[in-house]
Amino acid sequence: MSTPPIRLGYLLKHAHQQLTQLTGPALAPYGISGRELAVLLTLAGCEPASQQQAAQRLGVDRTTMVGLVDTLEAKSLVARRPQESDRRRNVVELTEAGRDTVRRASQAAAQAEREFLAPLSPEVAAQFVEALRLLVPPPVS
Q1: Across the strands, what pairs with 1?
Q2: Coil, strand or helix at 81
């Protein structure tokens, strides 16, 4: 009797869990989670954005984004201010502490990713990342 094939969903789920187990501790010294780093990176990579724009870029709903921004604001990593052209709308920007955290936490997350990919040769790791880029649509800009 042969062993049934391992399904792609199972492999992706468990690969994500392994990466999370490496990334979580890597980000812990900076007091942020992987999701919070994603928000910070999104804000760092563009002009000041509204919460709604940042949510669209990350592909998360507005309620989730409000919670993430509230948490980052409580940690003094982002600040909200009224948008100049529409005072009813808030713009979210990184604070100086937020910019420093992005820089240092990004390095830690990159190291965790290298550790995750370490069982693969550099060529296979690059092919794996490129294959995922082909399968996963880029964030909305």
Answers
A1: none
A2: strand
Task: For residues 68 and 86, give the distance between their C-alpha atoms in angstroms, rounded to a whole number.
Answer: 23
Asked if 58 and 42 touch (Cβ cutoff 8 Å), the reply is: yes
List of E strands, 1-141: 49-50, 78-82, 90-94
In the predicted structure, residue 3 carries a pLDDT above the cut 70:
yes
Radius of gyration from C-alpha coordinates of the chain: 18
Q: What is the pTM of this model?
A: 0.84
Q: What is the DSSP letter of 29?
A: G
Q: Rounded to an integer, what distance in angstroms lies between the CA atom of residue 98 and that of residue 44?
A: 9
Q: Is the pLDDT of residue 107 over 80?
A: yes
- Spell 44-56 as b/e; 16+ CB within 10 A means b: beeebbbbebbbb
Q: Which residues pair with 93 in a beta bridge?
A: 79
Cα–Cα dist 29/112, whole Å: 13
